[in-house]
Amino acid sequence: MDAPLPRDESSGEPRDGSGDDTTRRPSRRGWVIGAIIVVALIAAALVPTLFLNNKEPGLDRPDAAPEDVLKEVKDNFDAAEGVRIAVTSEDLADADAALVSLDGTAVRPDGFSGEMIVRVLGRDASGDILSVDGQSYAQGFVIFPSWAEVDPEDFNAPDPGALIDPDGGVSSLLTATQDVEQGETERAGANNEELLTTYTGTLDASVVRRIIPGADDGDFDATYQVDDDENLREARLRGVFYPGTDAMTYVITFSDYGETIEITAP
């Protein structure tokens, strides 16, 4: 009688000597470990690519020309029924009459209600400003104890109600800007939740006078910040706003798109 074949200690199967370790099928455990290693290596190789191809939304604009982006921004601005507008000055020029600041809500078609500070002969005067139906009214400013009709251009200030006008207001600057270039995108806001992209260019004085009537001849530098919804958030205009003075900057910020209030003549 033939002696029984020896059994493999790991599998319990008879070992007939017909093959060696190189021909036996690998164990299931070894196959699983090998598969895990392969998957891990592939994932490690793909991680840099995933980060490069899935950047944070808004960090890169589409391939649209900067001029086309600003046109879209203008369209969005013109579609808003109202917006809060704040104008501030930096390095204010030493002029006989100059706009220091303006802050309020503009509503379509030509309404505005807010506060304004002007500088006249070196002294600042503040008061309330209101504009409706093409007429501006002021109260305060030392000389107006009650509401009175005024012409803001006397203070080298804009008609506040016209700031929202599609043809002669702030948004008209966007499509009149020359040599537009897209700049960097940066985070902003209380929790860095906003993404703002910068666009720069130049404006002719004839265009800038729509905002500041006394703007001197020449070119002005324009810098816009646009959020990820293609809304204008800030416009910085730098140049000689008052003849015979040094260059200065006006900063115009925009918020609360869609906000409306009732504005009536006093």
UniProtKB/TrEMBL annotation:
What InterPro entries does its record include?
LolA/LolB/LppX (IPR029046), LppX/LprAFG (IPR009830)
Asked if the record carries the keyword Transmembrane, the reply is yes
Q: Into which family does the record put it?
A: Belongs to the LppX/LprAFG lipoprotein family.
Q: Does the keyword Ion transport apply?
A: no
The record lists the membrane-crossing segments as 31-52
| Taxonomic lineage of the native organism | Bacteria, Bacillati, Actinomycetota, Actinomycetes, Propionibacteriales
- In its UniProt entry, what is this protein called? LppX_LprAFG lipoprotein
Q: What's a GO cellular component annotated to this UniProt protein?
A: cell envelope
Native organism is Nocardioides zeae
Which region ranges are annotated with the description Disordered? 1-26
Residue spans with biased composition (Basic and acidic residues)? Answer: 1-24
Source domain of life is Bacteria
Main localization category: other
Instruction: Give compartment(s).
Output: Cell envelope
Alphabetically ordered keywords of this record = Cell membrane, Lipoprotein, Membrane, Transmembrane, Transmembrane helix
Q: Signal sequence: where?
A: none
